[in-house]
Write a structure and sequence with these properties.
The chain is mainly alpha-helical. The protein is built from 14 helices and four strands. The longest helix is centred in the middle third of the chain and has 32 residues.
Length: 379
């Protein structure tokens, strides 16, 4: 019985691999496209905001204001794109998107700093892009805070008037990403997307292609059981998905220098289950559709939702409660979380066991539904 099962699966695998390698467009799609996308997305999907255009209005022109200006010019986050002595000009620059931020230094800036040990500046920020505005505000507050700590003692010359925080030395370290390189954070998640796209799209159009060319009817009248047919359809793309992951990991290590602090076998163990779950979802979609175009559209519909709600670009914790609940049905969210935990933090089995269990249930449900619906629609 076991020999017959393996023999039938072997025939299906031989047929599938012949179809894959016979198609000239399939090889570039499987091997070239993911590598190109990994390089492009890793450099393009960068949420670090640098070189914000700052319009400076310095009404004081004092040593203190010049010192603050020099500190802004030395920052990687701002470039002083323009200066004036009128707020009207600054407003026009904001409206025309010539400036992102306006910093107004009042005429009594240094005098108040010396006399009252405090002074005020005005920030005007273009908040059409809320994320960009929030980061600009945070960057400016940090720079002004550093300026405050450095300059007060120099201008006042009296340690008794310095701010209390000056006496506290803070030694901070960045864990898991010491260089604060955004690519190290993004590459593990992008790897998951590429494996998912290849698996879901190719498996989704696979059975539909058999329907379009009419060969599925020939397969249905053979002695091959329907669950054997599904397994035979899944295995080639399961192997290709693992191969894609391996190529991506090599590029991540050697090109992007993404660390591997945890167990490589832990990632592969999860990838084995994840690939089965995503391929099962693709097969399930193919059982509901009659053309490759329909299958591609439906797969893309779910894939876009999965990507946007996966935590790749925005933290899941920042989403509304209902959206966080929906992410429990998002396979990409689980894999991205595990990849970042294992690769960047060195998490072990005890840390990710719940993710494994959830994905195993997901794989069981999607493949059971795929086999059941295939039997129902072709039986």
């Amino acid at each position: 019985m076991t020999f017959r099962f393996l023999r039938r699966i072997g025939f299906i695998l031989e047929k599938e691999f012949r179809q894959i390698f016979r198609n000239r467009l399939m090889i570039p799609i499987i091997f070239v496209m993911p590598v190109v996308q990994l390089f492009l997305l890793s450099y393009a999907a960068n949420f670090e905001i640098k070189n914000l255009k700052l319009h400076l209005i310095d009404l004081d022109l004092s040593p203190a204001s010049q010192r603050l200006q020099a500190k802004l010019e030395g920052s990687q986050y701002f470039i002083i794109s323009s200066q004036s002595f009128e707020k009207k000009t600054a407003y026009l620059n904001l409206e025309k998107d010539k400036s992102d931020v306006v910093l107004v230094i009042p005429s009594d800036f240094q005098r108040d700093l010396i006399r009252y040990n405090e002074t005020k500046v005005q920030l005007l920020i273009n908040a059409i892009d809320g994320t960009k505005a929030g980061l600009a505000n945070a960057y400016l507050n940090n720079i002004i805070g550093e300026f405050n700590n450095e300059v007060i003692l120099e201008l006042i010359g009296n340690p008794q008037l310095s701010i209390p925080a000056k006496n506290i030395v803070i030694d901070y370290r960045n864990w898991f990403n010491p260089t604060e390189d955004y690519k190290i954070f993004m590459v593990p998640g992008i790897l998951v997307l590429l494996v998912t796209m290849i698996s879901m799209f190719l498996s989704g159009i696979n059975i539909v292609r058999e329907k379009e060319i009419g060969t599925i009817e020939q397969l249905n009248v053979t002695t091959i059981k329907k669950y054997e047919f599904i397994i035979g359809k899944l295995l080639p793309f399961w192997l290709l998905a693992i191969l894609e992951l391996s190529i991506g990991l090599l590029i991540a290590w050697f090109i992007f220098e993404v660390p591997m602090r945890g167990s490589l076998w832990l990632i592969y163990s999860f990838a084995f289950i994840y690939a089965v779950a995503v391929l099962g979802l693709g097969i399930l979609i193919s059982t509901f559709t009659n053309t490759q175009q329909q299958s591609m559209f439906i797969s893309w519909f779910f894939l876009v939702i999965f990507i946007l709600m996966s935590g790749l670009f925005t933290p899941i914790e920042n989403m509304p409660a209902w959206a966080q609940f929906l992410t429990k049905f998002n396979p990409i969210a689980y894999f991205i979380q595990l990849m970042r935990m294992v690769m960047l933090k060195g998490s072990v089995w005890q840390d990710v066991s719940q993710i494994f269990i959830a994905m195993a249930i997901y794989a069981l449900v999607t493949n059971t539904l795929a086999v059941w619906n295939y039997q129902k629609t072709t039986g």
